Structures are given as structure tokens and as C-alpha cells.
Amino acid sequence: MTSEVDLSTEARTQQAARVPRARTRAGATAHRPPEVLRSRRSRPGPDAVLGLLWALVGLGVFSWRVGVPSPWRDEAVTVAVANRSAEQIWRLVQHVDLVHAPFYFLVHALSGPSATVVQARWPSVLAAAATAPLLHGLARRLALPATGPRTARLVGATAAALWVATPLVSRYAQEARPYALATLVATASAYLLVRASGSARRGWWVGYALSLPLLTALNTLALMVLPAHAGVLLLRGTGALARRRGAVAGGAGLLLALPLLVAQSTQQGQVAFLRPPLLRQLGEHVVFALGSPLTVALAAGAVVLAVWRARSRALLAVGLLWGAAPVPALWLLSQVHPLWTTRYLVVVVPGTCLLLAAAVTAALPAARRGRWVRGLPAAVALVLVAGTALAGLRMQLVFRDAQLGHAEDLRGTAAYLAEHARPGDGLLFVPDGEYRYRVLTQLYPEAFAGLRDLALDRPAAESATLVGTVLPTQELAGALEGTGRVWVVGGSGPVVTASEQDRETLRLLQEGYRVAREQHLRAFGVRLYVARDRPGAVLAA
Asked: CA 138 to CA 163: how far, in whole Å?
């Protein structure tokens, strides 16, 4: 493996000055036993040790309280689908959620037909932890030609530390969805490209080409990183041959991804709920992604410093194209074709870490003689990492809160029903068209074991849908006949009716029942409707 010293102009100059001494050493090593030479070659280098360290630190941070936050609706769907048979999963993704199919099959393969929320979150934990050493290596290699080995290693450590310290990373590192996994592949793809552009081995190019269809399979919008790949080839000084090879490898990878892109385009109804974002949402995303307004101010200062004086053009360009440009680009695209949501932008965060770490390469003159401030890189790194960690501490705790962490309290809702419902009670969901409500019965079946889902026609697995199919509207009255107590689960606040069936359900409840109990939890409302006075009705709440 080529060491970073070999890649540094400064180091090559120093090595040339030591040629006689190197020859003496070579002559001495020729007489050493082969086992001694093999032992020395097998010792891990400092960057391998640092990479392992960052992976362990990331694993510790991202696994902390991983099971505490209640899952939200999408995580519930992951667990519910992963617990089906492989054949049932395949039947489902042909109609819906094809973009999440690899993650569903992964969780199913790892946990079998009895996956829990925590088990489904662990692939994301491991993916986020593995991203840290890759980011370290990527940042170091991008900075190395312009800064030398010592500063380049500091840049890599800064990028990895920012990744671990950013609250948004922890939020999606504990998400039972494929966003952390897609981010890992995006980082690996950029790393493979950098290695390929500086190596004569074709295997790096093959790995890079194969990473693109995998990235597409995990998250189509993760292809937003491709402009940064162009920046690597154009600004890293790789030469015309590497650029041609990069274009060929990238084209081959996208060609392999094309069938996936076509298939995923047939399921665009899944994002039909998204709306064009307002201008204020752009700013809100930046604050949410970085953790606090203080962190935004710190990051803005780092970006200004990097743009002004960063010595590594390649690192700065990749950081801008990957870590900054995709955010306004997606906002603008969403004005025409709404795709704006924070979880689609998790893949941008490694680029943001690279962009901020570029400030570490800034060189400011300290005196007229033109000497550089030797301690400046370390000072910038310390301010960036410490400021991000301290300013983001509150959000780190919020994201690990039982009710607030993932913004929806499915667990508390199921626990409330398990405590207060009686065997034989009826169950309805209003609005019924939103999968977040009925998926509760699949995630916590024990809490709903004694209840009758009155509007359910065919269960989810049998109908190859996320939550099942419902009875025709005209059959709702018959389903309610003779039921004395009905639990209605919906959103918090007033009852929302989003369809004709919802309106008919609410009409029947208002005519024949009264509200006897009501509980509002995070994003959920639970109401007990008891039949009005009539023969045979069960009135007690």
C-alpha cells in the first residue's frame, strides 16, 4: 500500500536527501531474517490505528441509548415488513417501497421473522460507525498533496470527529431505515474514487463502478454526491488518464443502476405527500442538521476561512459540492417536484464534515517574513470539534429521549391500549389512509391481541400491502353492529377525516356512541367510544 509519505511533495524531497542512508539501511535489512521483515510489514500504520479508533468511538456514541426512543411510523414499517417471509417481502416491493427493499431483506436476513426495533436499528449504528474511519481516510488523502502528512492526518481526524459529534448523525444512526447505510456507501464510493485516481490498480475502479448501483438501490437521491466525484477527478491533479477512467467507471456504474432507477420511478406515489418547501424551511434544515444556531455560526466561520485560505483545493471543492450544494439544489428541485425532507439529506453530512475540515488547512501569515502559524491547524480543529460537540449536546439528548427522540410515540400508544382495552373491544383508525396508525398492530401485536380491527378486510402480508386493505365504506355500519366499545386511534388533536370512509366512520361513531375516554400522546390520539343507551350496549368505560 502506498503510504501518505510517498504522496507528499515535502516528504519526497526529504526522502531524496536521505538516499545514502536509505541504501545503507537497505543493505542492512537484506541480512535480516524474512520473518522479521514480514512482522514489520504487518504492523498497522498510524492511520489504520486511527481509523479503528474512530470506528470504536462512533460505535460507542451511536449505540448509546439506541433502544430508548420510541420508533416512529417508518421504523414500524421496517420491522413489520422484515418479519414477513422473503417471498412476501418480494411481493410487497413490486408495488411499494422498492427503494427500501435491500434494507428490508437485510434486516430479515439478520433477525429472521422476529425482528425487534432495536435489532432493525443496529445496521444503521454499524454503518454510521464504519463511516467515521472512511471519512478520516478520505479527508486525509484529499488534503495530503497540499498540506503534507501531519496536517493531512489532522484534517482526517477532524472530519471523523465532526461526523461523530454532529447530532443529526446520531439521529439517523439510530434509525431503522437505510439512510445511514446509504451514507456509508456514498462515503465508500468517494473513497474508492480517490484511491483509484491515485493508483495503477484497476480493482479500485471496479469497486467504484459497483458502488453506484448499490448506492442507487439504497437511496436514489444519494446520487446527489456525483458532482463531488467530478470535483475529485478535475481538481485533484490526477491526470487525463485517470479522468478518462473515472468517466468510464462512473458511466458503467450508472448504466448498471439504470434498471433500478426506472423501476423506482414507477413508485413515485410514495412521496406524493411531500409539498414544495417554503424558504424558511431551508434555513430550518440547516439549523436542524448542524444542531443549533451557535453551530451554524461556527460552521459559517469555518466555511469562510476555508474558502479564503484553504490550501487544499480538492478538499474544499469536494466539501462544497457534496456538503453544501445539494441542500439548495434539492430545495429548488422540490419547488417543481417535491422531494424535500431532512432524511433524504443525511447523505450530505459527510461532505459537510469535509467542508468544515478544510478550514484546518488554512495557512495565515504570522509575520512579514512569511512564516506560517504552526499551531493554527490544531487550534481550528479543536474549536470546530469542541464547538460542534458542546453546542449539539442538547439535541444529542433530545434524539435519545423516549417520547421526543423520533417525534412519534408508537410505544406509548400501544402501552396505553394494552392497559385500558378489554378483550372484544372494537378498533378503528381515523384517518384510515395513513399507515402510521394501523401499523401499530403489526409492531405491537400483543397490545392489540384482544381487539377486533373492525374496518380491516385483508391483513397486510396477505394483501401484499404495508398495512392491509379495508372494507368498502358501505359495510362499516355492519362491522360496528353490536360493538359496545370502540377504540379509535388517530392523530393528536381534533379528529381528522381525510376520505369518504373516514367521514362515514366518524358519522357512525357520533350517531351511536359517545366519547368516554381520551388520551393524547406524541403524534397520536386515542379515544374510547362507548355505545349510547340502547338494549345490549356495554356502557361502562
From this structure: 13
- The answer to whether residues 468 and 459 touch, using CB atoms and an 8 Å cutoff, is yes
Predicted confidence pLDDT, tens digits, the chain (541 residues): 333 333 333 344 334 433 343 333 434 434 444 333 333 444 558 888 999 999 999 999 999 999 999 999 999 999 999 999 999 999 999 999 999 999 999 999 999 899 999 999 999 999 999 999 999 999 999 999 999 899 999 999 999 999 999 999 999 999 999 999 999 999 999 999 999 998 889 999 999 999 999 999 999 999 999 999 999 998 876 688 899 999 999 999 999 999 999 999 888 877 878 999 999 999 999 999 999 999 999 999 999 999 999 999 999 999 999 999 999 999 999 999 999 999 999 999 999 999 999 999 987 654 434 455 678 889 999 999 999 999 999 999 999 999 999 999 999 999 999 999 999 999 999 998 778 899 999 999 999 999 999 999 999 999 999 999 999 999 999 999 999 999 999 999 899 898 999 999 999 999 999 999 999 999 999 999 999 875 444 444 4
Per the omega criterion (within 30 degrees of 0), is the bond before 328 cis? Answer: no
Q: Name the pTM for this structure.
A: 0.89
Instruction: Say which residue the cell 391500549 belongs to.
Output: 417
Whether the CB-CB separation of 467 and 479 falls below 8 Å is answered with: no
Closest CA to 355 of 374, 327, 375, 334: 327
Cα–Cα distance measured from residue 153 to residue 145, given in angstroms and rounded to the nearest whole number: 12
Confirm if 404 and 522 have CB atoms less than 8 A apart. yes
Rounded Cα distance, 505 and 496, in Å: 11
485: helix, coil or strand? strand
Q: How many CB atoms lie within 10 A of CB 461?
A: 19
Bridge partners for 490 per DSSP: 525
Q: Write out the three cell numbers for 120.
A: 432493525
Q: Spell 166-197 as b/e; 16+ CB within 10 A means b.
A: bbbbbbbbbbbbbbbbbbbbbbbbbbbbbbbb
E-state strands within 134-282: none
Between CA 120 and CA 329 the distance in angstroms is 31
What DSSP string describes 305-355? Answer: HHHHHBS-HHHHHHHHHHHTTHHHHHHHHHHHS----GGGGGGGHHHHHHH
Distance, CA of 176 to CA of 72 (rounded, Å): 9
Tell me which residue of 486, 273, 306, 287 sits closest to 394, measured CA to CA: 287
* CA separation for the pair 270, 249 (Å, rounded): 31
Give the CA dihedral 183, 187, 192, 194, nearest 10 degrees.
150
Least Cα distance to 357 among 153, 193, 198, 493 occurs for 153
Report yes or no: 109 and 117 within 8 Å, Cβ to Cβ: no
DSSP symbols for 409-424: -HHHHHHHHHHH--TT
